[in-house]
Amino acid sequence: MNEVRGITTEATTAAPTLSSRLSAVRPSPTIAITRLANELRRQGRDVIGLSQGEPDFDTPRHVKEAAKAAIDGGQTKYTDVDGTPELKRAIVQKFSTENGLSYDISQISVGTGGKQVLYNALCATLDEGDEVIIPAPYWVSYPDMVLLAGGKPVIVSCGEAEGFKLSAEALRRAITARTKWLVLNSPSNPTGAGYSAAELDALGRVLLDHPQVMVLTDDMYEHIRYDGWEFATIAAVEPRLFDRVLTCNGVSKAYAMTGWRIGYAGGPAWLIKAMATIQSQSTTNPSSVSQAAAIAALTGPLDFLAERNAVFQERRDLCLTAFNNTPGLSCRTPDGAFYLFPSCAGMIGRRRAGGRTIDTDVDFATFLLEEASVAVVPGSAFGLAPYFRISFATATERLSAACVRIAEACGRLA
User: Fold this and answer.
1) φ and ψ at 181, to 5 degrees?
2) Beta-strand (E) ranges in 137-221?
3) Three-class SS state of 183
4) CA-to-CA distance for 336 and 82, rounded, in angstroms?
5) DSSP 3-state assignment of 11?
6) Are both 274 and 372 inside the same structural domain?
7) Nearest Cα to Cα of residue 119 among 281, 255, 235, 338
8) In the chain, what percentage of residues exceed pLDDT 90?
9) Which of 154, 195, 383, 391 could form a disulfide with 199 if both were Cys (CB 3.0 to 4.6 A apart)?
């Protein structure tokens, strides 16, 4: 019993609760796997982590020097909510020079990493029940960001036979009166599959028939590509969609700046303004020092990219050969990014020592962590099974050792 101003009341027993929306959202599977691998390392295990998409290269020297100069110059105060005018001008120039896209700085948003930019856009536009088409395999965060924003993810399976890419016909079938966005990621995380200009043109022709559908294109891996594959982005391929496209990018992957947390986008001014409103009530501006570093990245030399891509391609080919020579595994060659998405269908139904059966790709990933001390992410986390994802953005000798461990472990399965 409680007394409030002389009034006796029954004590409340209701416990605080989380929002119902949160119950539909999963923690990031890639982060979860990385945490488990780190815990095993703390126990003394030599775990090779292939689960996290982070280049092992250092941030370019000229970028770090620009950050130091910003600190010494006193650039440590608040900036405009969604990016400094100087960084926005650098992004405008980047879009113009590299992608053939013409934006004004009022059409540019800068956030604390690409993930915040995507989330801001979804929060600013989705009402309960609005649908977002997401081709699978997908980056793990897309569906959950849609759910947090109140929308409904519409997953369209795009299997290996389709090159892990959305076809025009599949897009046409998925669109309804409630469709608000289509999400495109090229080159893709997790598969490395890239859309050609012709494939984007075919998707664009479908979208022209549905003026209510906007396109969120995630071009984060634009500069990491192989075998002469040419990058294209849909707003440039189909200019009539320009006012309906949010072209997202960032400095994390190509410039090895994951910890600096700078993502950006170009899009219609009304959307950019709404995204700034969302950001003003969450994080406010990205780090002022990181913004200064991003200017140096976007306006500085890119000669280091060719050398790094050559190393990535060497690592890609090493792992491809190993997996395709391991009975029960097979892997398609990616166009870009630094991931492989091998099939483990041939491992399903095999038995571990002790009699446990590998029934799913989650079982297989668990087996590799427990028996081979190699951390990978099961394909079901990306919406397609039975596969697993590895990142080859790690030291070549560690990749080679991981491939040997995986092959040996698979050979022990009955």
Assistant:
1) -140, 150
2) 152-157, 179-185, 214-218
3) strand
4) 29
5) coil
6) no
7) 281
8) 88
9) 195
Alpha helices in 357-395 (DSSP H): 361-367
pLDDT above 70: percentage of residues in the chain:
96
Six-digit token string for 101: 């896209």
Among 39-43, 193-197, 293-297, the least confident range:
39-43
pLDDT tens-digit readout, 113-125: 999 999 999 999 9
CATH code assigned at 389? 3.90.1150.10
- Identify the pLDDT of residue 12: 54
In whole angstroms, give the CA distance from residue 137 to residue 143. Answer: 11
Q: Decide the pairing of beta strands 263-266 and 108-111.
A: antiparallel
Are 128 and 218 contained in the same domain?
yes
Structural domain of residue 142, as residue ranges?
A: 77-299
72 lies in a domain?
A: no
Range 63-67 average pLDDT: 98
Identify the domain boundary among 266, 299, 332.
Answer: 299
Per the structure, the count of domains in the chain is 2
Peptide bond into 378 cis (omega under 30): no
Whole-structure pTM value: 0.93
Please state, in angstroms and rounded to a whole number, the distance separating the CA atoms of residues 278 and 123: 8
User: 144: which residues sit within 8 A by CB, 6+ positions away?
Assistant: 24, 25, 26
